[in-house]
Amino acid sequence: MKLLLEKIEEVYSRIREDINHTPVMTSTTLNNETNAICFLKMENYQRTGSFKIRGALNAIICLSEEKKAKGVTTHSSGNFAQALSLASKMARVKATVVMPENAPKIKVAATKGYGAEVVFCGTKPGDREEMAQSLIDEYDYTLIHSSNDMNIIYGQSTATYELIKEVGELDYVFAPCGGGGLLSGTAIATKSLCSEGKVIGVEPKNADDAFRSFRDGKIYPSINPNTIADGLKTSLGNYTFKVIRENVDKIITVTEEEIVNAMEFLWARMKHVVEPSGAVSLAGVLSDKIDLHQKRVGVVISGGNIDLTNFFELIRNKIK
Hints:
Layout: H1 2-15, E1 24-25, H2 28-34, E2 37-42, H3 52-61, H4 65-70, E3 72-75, H5 79-91, E4 95-100, H6 105-113, E5 117-121, H7 127-139, E6 142-143, H8 150-167, E7 172-176, H9 181-193, E8 198-204, H10 209-216, H11 238-247, E9 250-254, H12 256-269, H13 276-286, E10 296-301, H14 309-319
Parallel strand pairs: 2-10, 3-4, 3-6, 4-5, 7-8, 7-10, 8-9
Antiparallel strand pairs: 1-2
């Protein structure tokens, strides 16, 4: 694990000046409910509102000057779209982002606001990849995948690296799983820094392709998942699947109600605005599927990009 740690530290030194060192929060109520000592790494306070700027920035920095000159592309429903847009702007690289036509409006607006060109695609399986490939064929862009890229994975590992460096060794670390970039990064950082640390991936029950892939030893695609956690609908890739199989101890699933309950706890009890995908890891902690009695537990809260337009419109209507 020494070589992994050296790689993580190399990446961290590369990006640390351009990312937020996000806070670690605790809650006496949460500790009492879980009979554990929980440390929440609040990546909803990261630049662009999620952990994904870490990997995006590392991937952009690692490109050759020739590839930077030609530009980059990706396909994303929102959080990675924003991250790559900002990272590209910081590196003065042109970014063209493929987003499904039903992507959350707040995430589309933010992606454009950070400077990327947005190209819309359909919502059927494969539409994103096909559109991105057509752009690559026409303009010779470099594809920066949101998760299935080792530069992305090492970038995402820096969130848990920061967490453990701040609070010390942990018995468990929980992280959400969509495409697996964050869970992969969480796993290699945990295994590098905690001699006995166990890594738990958490996934919506309604989008359980990673759970089944981990269980059966082969990748199952994510096909039309129906979950409130829109950031976790992506399938595992060959890189993330390999890292997860080798370093993650278990993947558990949580219901939609458990996700909402975790969001409610974060909003109402801890006063943190967290999106459904970001609350999935806490939902796993609260699910009682893992015995956490008297354990030191890290929880990666991955993001806070949620559209509150309807919420504030409701308030405005009440004061008219």
